[in-house]
Protein backbone atom coordinates (compact mmCIF):
# COMPACT_ATOMS: atom_id res chain seq x y z
CA UNK A 1 0.00 0.00 0.00
CA UNK A 2 2.93 2.37 0.62
CA UNK A 3 3.86 2.29 -3.06
CA UNK A 4 7.62 2.24 -2.43
CA UNK A 5 8.40 0.30 -5.62
CA UNK A 6 6.24 2.70 -7.61
CA UNK A 7 8.14 5.68 -6.21
CA UNK A 8 11.42 3.87 -6.86
CA UNK A 9 10.58 3.27 -10.53
CA UNK A 10 8.39 6.24 -11.43
CA UNK A 11 9.40 8.91 -8.95
CA UNK A 12 5.82 9.51 -7.83
CA UNK A 13 2.72 7.68 -6.69
CA UNK A 14 0.07 7.20 -9.36
CA UNK A 15 -3.10 8.85 -8.03
CA UNK A 16 -5.60 7.72 -10.67
CA UNK A 17 -7.40 4.81 -9.00
CA UNK A 18 -8.58 3.43 -12.34
CA UNK A 19 -4.99 2.75 -13.40
CA UNK A 20 -3.83 0.99 -10.23
CA UNK A 21 -4.02 -2.41 -8.59
CA UNK A 22 -7.29 -1.68 -6.69
CA UNK A 23 -9.10 -1.55 -10.04
CA UNK A 24 -8.20 -5.21 -10.54
CA UNK A 25 -9.53 -6.13 -7.10
CA UNK A 26 -12.69 -4.02 -7.54
CA UNK A 27 -13.44 -6.06 -10.65
CA UNK A 28 -12.91 -9.19 -8.54
CA UNK A 29 -15.77 -8.05 -6.31
CA UNK A 30 -18.18 -8.03 -9.27
CA UNK A 31 -20.21 -11.12 -10.06
CA UNK A 32 -18.35 -14.07 -11.61
CA UNK A 33 -15.39 -12.31 -13.25
CA UNK A 34 -13.51 -14.49 -15.74
CA UNK A 35 -9.79 -15.09 -15.15
CA UNK A 36 -8.88 -14.29 -18.76
CA UNK A 37 -10.71 -10.95 -18.58
CA UNK A 38 -8.99 -10.12 -15.31
CA UNK A 39 -5.60 -10.89 -16.74
CA UNK A 40 -6.28 -8.62 -19.70
CA UNK A 41 -7.14 -5.98 -17.13
CA UNK A 42 -3.79 -6.47 -15.38
CA UNK A 43 -2.06 -5.93 -18.71
CA UNK A 44 -4.06 -2.76 -19.34
CA UNK A 45 -3.28 -1.14 -16.00
CA UNK A 46 0.45 -1.94 -16.13
CA UNK A 47 2.35 1.35 -16.37
CA UNK A 48 5.55 1.70 -18.43
CA UNK A 49 8.69 2.71 -16.54
CA UNK A 50 11.79 4.56 -17.76
CA UNK A 51 13.59 1.20 -17.81
CA UNK A 52 13.53 -1.02 -20.88
CA UNK A 53 11.24 -4.06 -20.76
CA UNK A 54 9.93 -3.18 -17.30
CA UNK A 55 6.35 -2.22 -16.45
CA UNK A 56 4.65 -1.88 -13.09
CA UNK A 57 1.13 -2.31 -11.77
CA UNK A 58 0.90 0.50 -9.23
CA UNK A 59 -0.69 0.26 -5.78
CA UNK A 60 -2.98 2.77 -4.16
CA UNK A 61 -4.15 3.60 -0.61
CA UNK A 62 -7.55 2.14 -1.57
CA UNK A 63 -5.99 -1.33 -1.23
CA UNK A 64 -6.41 -1.17 2.55
CA UNK A 65 -10.14 -0.42 2.41
CA UNK A 66 -10.70 -3.21 -0.14
CA UNK A 67 -8.90 -5.88 1.88
CA UNK A 68 -11.72 -6.71 4.32
CA UNK A 69 -14.24 -6.94 1.47
CA UNK A 70 -11.96 -9.30 -0.47
CA UNK A 71 -11.42 -11.45 2.60
CA UNK A 72 -15.14 -11.72 3.36
CA UNK A 73 -15.87 -12.68 -0.26
CA UNK A 74 -13.10 -15.33 -0.32
CA UNK A 75 -11.29 -13.73 -3.25
CA UNK A 76 -7.78 -14.88 -2.32
CA UNK A 77 -7.49 -17.08 -5.44
CA UNK A 78 -8.40 -14.40 -7.98
CA UNK A 79 -4.88 -13.04 -8.40
CA UNK A 80 -3.43 -16.58 -8.86
CA UNK A 81 -6.20 -17.36 -11.36
CA UNK A 82 -5.48 -14.24 -13.38
CA UNK A 83 -1.71 -14.78 -13.39
CA UNK A 84 -2.16 -18.38 -14.58
CA UNK A 85 -3.40 -17.06 -17.93
CA UNK A 86 -1.00 -16.39 -20.80
CA UNK A 87 0.72 -13.02 -20.48
CA UNK A 88 2.54 -10.47 -22.57
CA UNK A 89 5.17 -10.47 -19.81
CA UNK A 90 8.00 -12.99 -19.50
CA UNK A 91 8.11 -12.71 -15.72
CA UNK A 92 5.96 -11.16 -13.02
CA UNK A 93 7.52 -10.03 -9.73
CA UNK A 94 5.24 -9.30 -6.77
CA UNK A 95 6.57 -6.91 -4.15
CA UNK A 96 4.59 -7.92 -1.07
CA UNK A 97 3.71 -5.71 1.90
CA UNK A 98 5.84 -6.09 5.04
CA UNK A 99 3.10 -8.03 6.82
CA UNK A 100 1.38 -11.40 6.60
CA UNK A 101 -2.12 -10.47 5.47
CA UNK A 102 -4.59 -11.16 2.67
CA UNK A 103 -2.42 -9.42 0.06
CA UNK A 104 0.83 -11.21 0.91
CA UNK A 105 -0.89 -14.61 1.19
CA UNK A 106 -2.58 -14.07 -2.17
CA UNK A 107 0.84 -13.30 -3.65
CA UNK A 108 2.36 -16.49 -2.20
CA UNK A 109 -0.50 -18.57 -3.60
CA UNK A 110 0.07 -16.94 -7.01
CA UNK A 111 3.85 -17.40 -7.11
CA UNK A 112 6.16 -20.16 -8.25
CA UNK A 113 9.10 -18.93 -6.19
CA UNK A 114 9.79 -16.39 -3.47
CA UNK A 115 12.81 -14.44 -2.28
CA UNK A 116 13.25 -13.59 1.38
CA UNK A 117 15.44 -10.64 2.46
CA UNK A 118 17.33 -11.12 5.72
CA UNK A 119 18.58 -8.01 7.53
CA UNK A 120 21.20 -9.71 9.72
CA UNK A 121 19.65 -9.21 13.14
CA UNK A 122 17.83 -11.34 15.71
CA UNK A 123 14.38 -9.94 14.93
CA UNK A 124 14.88 -10.62 11.23
CA UNK A 125 15.82 -14.22 12.01
CA UNK A 126 12.67 -14.65 14.07
CA UNK A 127 10.57 -13.19 11.25
CA UNK A 128 12.35 -15.43 8.73
CA UNK A 129 11.36 -18.62 10.53
CA UNK A 130 7.79 -17.40 10.97
CA UNK A 131 7.60 -16.73 7.23
CA UNK A 132 9.09 -20.12 6.37
CA UNK A 133 6.32 -21.69 8.44
CA UNK A 134 3.68 -19.75 6.52
CA UNK A 135 5.27 -20.74 3.20
CA UNK A 136 5.15 -24.39 4.25
CA UNK A 137 1.45 -24.07 5.08
CA UNK A 138 0.71 -22.35 1.76
CA UNK A 139 2.61 -25.07 -0.09
CA UNK A 140 0.68 -27.88 1.62
CA UNK A 141 -2.75 -26.27 1.49
CA UNK A 142 -2.86 -24.02 -1.55
CA UNK A 143 0.18 -23.97 -3.85
CA UNK A 144 2.34 -27.11 -4.08
CA UNK A 145 4.57 -25.41 -6.70
CA UNK A 146 5.76 -22.69 -4.33
CA UNK A 147 9.51 -22.80 -3.65
CA UNK A 148 11.88 -20.62 -1.68
CA UNK A 149 14.30 -19.39 -4.32
CA UNK A 150 16.66 -18.12 -1.67
CA UNK A 151 17.35 -15.97 1.36
CA UNK A 152 19.06 -12.70 0.41
CA UNK A 153 21.49 -11.40 3.03
CA UNK A 154 20.70 -7.68 3.10
CA UNK A 155 22.52 -4.85 4.91
CA UNK A 156 25.52 -7.15 5.27
CA UNK A 157 28.40 -6.06 7.54
CA UNK A 158 31.36 -8.36 6.99
CA UNK A 159 33.39 -7.02 9.91
CA UNK A 160 30.59 -7.27 12.50
CA UNK A 161 30.56 -10.50 14.49
CA UNK A 162 26.83 -10.85 15.21
CA UNK A 163 25.55 -10.43 11.62
CA UNK A 164 28.20 -12.81 10.34
CA UNK A 165 27.34 -15.39 13.02
CA UNK A 166 23.63 -15.17 12.27
CA UNK A 167 24.24 -15.83 8.58
CA UNK A 168 26.59 -18.72 9.35
CA UNK A 169 23.92 -20.22 11.60
CA UNK A 170 21.34 -20.06 8.82
CA UNK A 171 23.74 -21.83 6.45
CA UNK A 172 24.51 -24.50 9.06
CA UNK A 173 20.79 -25.06 9.58
CA UNK A 174 20.38 -25.76 5.87
CA UNK A 175 18.51 -22.61 4.90
CA UNK A 176 18.85 -21.64 1.20
CA UNK A 177 21.08 -18.60 1.80
CA UNK A 178 22.32 -17.12 -1.47
CA UNK A 179 26.05 -16.55 -1.88
CA UNK A 180 25.72 -12.90 -2.87
CA UNK A 181 25.61 -10.41 -0.01
CA UNK A 182 24.11 -6.91 -0.29
CA UNK A 183 26.13 -4.41 1.75
CA UNK A 184 24.91 -1.60 3.96
CA UNK A 185 25.30 1.75 2.21
CA UNK A 186 23.72 5.19 2.22
CA UNK A 187 23.80 4.93 -1.58
CA UNK A 188 20.62 2.83 -1.42
CA UNK A 189 18.69 5.65 0.26
CA UNK A 190 20.13 8.13 -2.22
CA UNK A 191 18.98 5.96 -5.11
CA UNK A 192 15.47 5.87 -3.56
CA UNK A 193 15.36 9.64 -3.55
CA UNK A 194 16.58 9.79 -7.15
CA UNK A 195 14.03 7.13 -8.24
CA UNK A 196 16.79 5.08 -9.83
CA UNK A 197 18.05 1.60 -9.14
CA UNK A 198 21.65 1.45 -7.84
CA UNK A 199 23.04 0.30 -11.18
CA UNK A 200 21.49 3.34 -12.89
CA UNK A 201 22.23 5.71 -10.01
CA UNK A 202 25.94 4.84 -9.73
CA UNK A 203 27.10 2.02 -11.99
CA UNK A 204 30.57 1.88 -10.39
CA UNK A 205 29.42 1.66 -6.79
CA UNK A 206 30.03 -1.64 -4.98
CA UNK A 207 26.27 -2.08 -4.56
CA UNK A 208 25.82 -2.07 -8.31
CA UNK A 209 28.29 -4.93 -8.64
CA UNK A 210 26.56 -6.79 -5.81
CA UNK A 211 23.14 -6.47 -7.42
CA UNK A 212 24.54 -7.64 -10.75
CA UNK A 213 26.07 -10.62 -8.98
CA UNK A 214 22.74 -11.36 -7.27
CA UNK A 215 20.93 -11.26 -10.59
CA UNK A 216 23.51 -13.60 -12.14
CA UNK A 217 23.17 -16.02 -9.22
CA UNK A 218 19.40 -16.07 -9.54
Mean pLDDT score: 84
The total count of helices amounts to: 11
Q: Total number of β-strand segments?
A: 5
Q: Which secondary-structure class do the elements indicate?
A: alpha/beta
The main sheet comes to: 3 strands, parallel
Instruction: Tell me, briefly, the overall form.
Output: globular
Order of H and E elements: HHHEEHHHEHEHEHHH
Using the CA coordinates, give the radius of gyration: 18 Å
Description:
- The protein has 218 residues and is α/β, with parallel strands linked by helices.
- The chain has helices spanning 4-10, 21-28, 35-45, 62-72, 78-83, 102-110, 122-141, 161-172, 186-194, 198-201, 206-217, and strands at residues 47-48, 55-56, 113-118, 147-156, 177-183.
- The strands form 2 sheets. The protein has a 3-stranded parallel beta sheet with strand order 3-4-5. It has a two-stranded antiparallel ribbon with strand order 1-2.
- The longest helix has 20 residues, at 122-141.
- The protein is globular, with a radius of gyration of 18 Å.
- 18% of the residues are buried.
- The mean pLDDT is 84.
Question: In summary, what is this structure?
Answer:
With 218 residues, the chain is of the alpha/beta class.
Q: Strands, helices and their partners?
A:
Elements: H1 4-10, H2 21-28, H3 35-45, E1 47-48, E2 55-56, H4 62-72, H5 78-83, H6 102-110, E3 113-118, H7 122-141, E4 147-156, H8 161-172, E5 177-183, H9 186-194, H10 198-201, H11 206-217
Parallel strand pairs: 3-4, 4-5
Antiparallel strand pairs: 1-2
Helix pairs in contact: 2-3, 2-4
Keywords, separated by commas or semicolons:
3-stranded parallel β-sheet, 11 helices, 5 strands, alpha/beta, 218 residues, two-stranded antiparallel sheet
